[in-house]
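Hi there,

I know you've been waiting on this one. I reran it after we fixed the sequence typo, so this is the corrected version. Both the input and the resulting structure follow.
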Amino acid sequence: MVNAIVLIKVTRGRVPEVADALLELPEVAEVYSVTGENDLVAVVRVKEYDQMAELVPAKIDRIQGVERTNTMMAFRIYSRHDLEYLFSLGADEELRYRRAHSLAETRTTSSAD
């Protein structure tokens, strides 16, 4: 997976429409309105680098109201959220299994009394 941050300068008054248009693109995971030189920041994810070369100039830059973009390709992701998700995979199933077996064991023990 290739991740990028796209900084976007938008025509005055067009931020909500541009943000909505960006979110229509399946490659755009998140869009933030920000302060400073740029108006929007889009988090973009594609499978291959070549797709990024098509996405920004062919789709994002052509959205009405986009004046300029600056794309930063990510080398590595450092995210507490991603790590917590990876470590929690299967945790719900494990808890359900333990609870079910604990209840079954309790019923077996109490019926034997």
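Quick highlight: The mean pLDDT is 83.

Best,
R. S.
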